[in-house]
Amino acid sequence: MTDRLLTIDGLTKAYPGVVANDHVSFGIDAGEVHALLGENGAGKSTLVKMIYGLVRPDAGAMTLMGDSFAPPEPRAARAAGVAMVFQHFSLFEALSVAENISLGMENPPKHGELSARITKVSHDYGLPLDPERLIGELSAGERQRVEIIRCLLQDPKLLIMDEPTSVLTPQEVEVLFQTLRKLSSEGTAILYISHKLEEIRDICDSATILRHGVVVDTCNPREKSARELAEMMVGSALLQPQRDAGEFGEVVLEVKELYVPATTQFGTSLKSVNMAVRAGEILGIGGVAGNGQDELLAALSGETPSAEQTVTFEGRPIGHLGPNARRELGILAAPEERLGHAAAPDMSLTENALLTAAIRENLVSNGFVNWAKARTFAKKVIADFDVRTPGAHTAARALSGGNLQKFVIGREVLQNPRVLVVNQPTWGVDASAAAAIRQALMDLAGKGAAVVVISQDLDELMEVSDNFCALNEGHLTRPRPTKGLTVEEIGLMLGGMEEEQEVAHA
Amino acid sequence: MDLSTINPVLLIASLMVAATPIMLAAIGELVVEKAGVLNLGVEGMMIIGAICGFAIAVETGSPLLGFVAAAVAGAVLSLLFAFLTQILLANQVASGLALTLFGLGLSALIGQSYAGIKPPPTPKIDIPLLSDIPILGPILFGHDLMVYFAILLIAAVWAVLKYTRLGLILRAVGENHDAAHALGYKVVRIRILAIMFGGACAGLGGAYLSLIRVPQWTEGMTAGAGWIALAIVVFASWKPWRVMLGAYLFGGVTVLQFNLQAAGVNIPVQYLAMSPYLVTILVLVIMSSSKARSAMNAPAALGRIFHATH
Fold first, then answer.
1. Which of A234, A263, A283 is the last residue of a domain?
2. Which residues of A touch B188 (CB under 8 A)?
3. Subunit contact A108:B183, Cβ cutoff 8 A
4. Local structure of residue A66 (DSSP, 8 states)
5. Nearest CA to A333 among A255, A279, A413?
6. What is the per-residue pLDDT across B31-55, written as a single tens digit (0 to 9) for each?
């Protein structure tokens, strides 16, 4: 216990209606990589927010390097040597790298000096960065570097990382892990939160498992299988999604030479995209965020119309049709952004169900809404997809991310689509819910629908999809059968190195 | 029609005077918007500044005290907006519009006994040698203090936003309030201070109208200057020096149309009177047509309500 860095003793935090953390106790040694595991809503975020001073505990105490530690605000936590890399919400797109880093420091040096230090530290840790670039121009991986460098410049004793790899390519994950190992060998403790159990087995020395705000177990993740870890989190046996790969039918949806301009200033335009999905097939589209995923989904769902002939449905040109006309044909979509794109935040689940299902489920007649029918449909989605909510009258905003995701996917799946396009179907969803969503997608394909899964989670794509292609800077690679693809090959496809691969194989 | 009666030197000199009130109000609003708050109550704060500054200057005989009072009054009125939008999380657009209507009404009430009075004159700076320089002298060195103060304020806001930590934090709050909060910055406090700064600037702009530009008190005398100031912030794509440019452009057209009227140009007076507003609309259309550019500078959190979830 000589090099015990942080001891947490009986931390408790209750919100109206839920106890987020109930007498949570554990300890982290200097140089240890400690995983915090748990389902969505298990209380991991609340716990790290208390350590970082964003939330004050109702009861309990923390000890940092032998001294009592109760940071009233993040500033105090940073001063004491605790740094945090957030999952999201912590960079300023219109500001430069140096400005972003300066904002996260207590006593930032002068601009020139800071830039020099950023350049030096970023090279020392193998995370090169240009201090003058705007965040808006950076990729997700580079943005994360900014966050990490911001922490490293303050020589933290404890680095908290919340879902750091969710947006990284396998290569970027490897670079990150090298950095973390280097930090750990220098004596920095790391508290690591992730849903990706293989990563935790790869990098963490010990793990604390939370369920409903209570510590249920601690273990050495290297001695457990990913499945065992998942079951410890959920508290019951985990169902592995599975299906029998059937024969594919005719091509249902085809895209030829699709060009779409970027939807946002920091988006990517699609360049000459060609793809085809057959009945019963799941086509997985990988790629790091911001490579044209949103644009592709919008072009397929009809949000961005294109030239008539570029998109065809069963041989019929539909490129010019809008979302409702495509829904009528059976082409449904679930976009990535849950609040504001897939669902209207302040409307009830019934109203949200109505928004996309009105046509296919006949919820409207002669311009009048059939509320009873809409409610029944919403309740069916809630029941079939195990959406945890007080009822169909609840506002979408009130649901946790994972539960809303289940609702959004369920709403489309239950409309019996001919084609379903989903973007990041299990983003931020815990292991058991993710398994349920993937199972639903596979069942849908099993019933003969064509499914397009756009995701940044490669494990997910490997699990569900029959064919895999990668989106890189708006270019889509040719699909390859998922079976037999190696991590290296996928990494190269994601990096846009397809052509060289072809040559190498020839 | 005799265009030769228009004296370009006098035209430029009076353009600077005409531009000063909107420049003051606009630079204040720029700071508010940079912090991510859209306060549409500029007009109301200006007119409150106009009457309070006027009243205090008349009562004390000191225009300087009048300006101080106007700044205080504008800031106090803006606190109402700050309370509604930052503490009670009310909608910013509706609150801002309400603030304008409230300011116009309240100023009329306060100003009842001040109509038709002349305020104490504000001395012009007269630097003996410089103001005697032909052409440049009357343009650059023959004004009252507030004209220079407004330009200095532009420079100060520019420098603070660009070079200081305070400016960086302000921009960060306006760019992404959740991230700023996560880093431990006091989003609400920073925004309230920015709103008060905007109120004080608008108050000064209003007092400049009633104490120097007109100079007397009439009900509703701001006549849309606050709205022009709001438009100029967008026109300037949130850049301080362009606020100055925008204000001079608007001031220039205003002064020019007076001069054209006086010169007997054969166009109905109404067309001339509406020309500054038409030019403003035209410029705004041109500005917003280059989407990427104005979007680049617009604070990303502008007008969004911040609610700390922890």
1. A234
2. none
3. no
4. T
5. A413
6. 999 999 999 999 999 999 999 999 9
